[in-house]
Amino acid sequence: EPEVTQTPSHQVTQMGQEVILRCVPISNHLYFYWYRQILGQKVEFLVSFYNNEISEKSEIFDDQFSVERPDGSNFTLKIRSTKLEDSAMYFCASSRSLSSYNSPLHFGNGTRLTVT
Amino acid sequence: KQEVTQIPAALSVPEGENLVLNCSFTDSAIYNLQWFRQDPGKGLTSLLLIQSSQREQTSGRLNASLDKSSGRSTLYIAASQPGDSATYLCAVATGTASKLTFGTGTRLQVTL
To answer: Rounded to an integer, what distance in angstroms lies between the CA atom of residue B88 and that of residue A31?
Structure first.
């Protein structure tokens, strides 16, 4: 069964550094998302992306964050200058359509980002 | 602002028991509700999706119900097995279908 893949599984970076988290969504999906989960807290929506532009973003997704689909397969999340509070598990997800009956979100296994 | 609550936070049951996990949400104007399973260190696996116009969905031993007017959903697991041990998350899409609001989850342990 096709799945969403994320790399790396774990990224350690120093405060102030830029990081890029990578995702390969399921190939026939059109909608892409980033969520994050700080340890012990709820999964939180960051951003949704469709047709090469952001559809919706949360208040967490400030100017330090950006997303890109650089080619036909990858979907990336960039954090320009990481802060300690950016430490979290970041999940990429994709769906074929806007979560209709037969199109739930499919999540990757996540990238654990640790900012020191 | 949508708030999603799940009760109980943790549950331990012996193998074979039927069990019910609860989810409540404050804003009934939802697009859909999804139940996910999360294993330690892993991503989220979609279990069931209920559209706002539906009352329930079934998949194998799982049955999810939705009462939109009262802001509640339940996930019923029949004949639980040790392999069902995981955290179960409820999430609602409010306003648009692209933004899910998650609950804190119910951590389930099924013992032999």
So the answer is: 24
d(CA A35, CA B71): 24
Residue A100 has pLDDT above 60, yes or no: no
B42–A109: do the CB atoms touch at under 8 Å? yes
Indicate the pairing of strand A10-13 with strand A111-115.
Answer: parallel
> Band of the pLDDT at A102, cuts 50, 70, 90?
low
pLDDT in tens, B57-110: 999 999 999 999 999 999 999 999 999 999 999 999 886 667 899 999 999 999
The number of C-beta contacts closer than 8 angstroms across A and B is 66
Dist. CA A29–CA A71, nearest whole Å: 14
Residues 6+ apart with CB under 8 A from A92: A4, A6, A21, A23, A25, A32, A33, A34, A75, A77, A107, A108
* Alpha carbon distances (Å) from B88 to A77, A92, B47: 26, 18, 9
Q: How far apart are CA B101 and CA B82, in angstroms?
A: 28
Residue in chain A lying closest to B96 (CA): A98
Query: What integer pLDDT is reported at residue A99 of this predicted model?
Result: 55
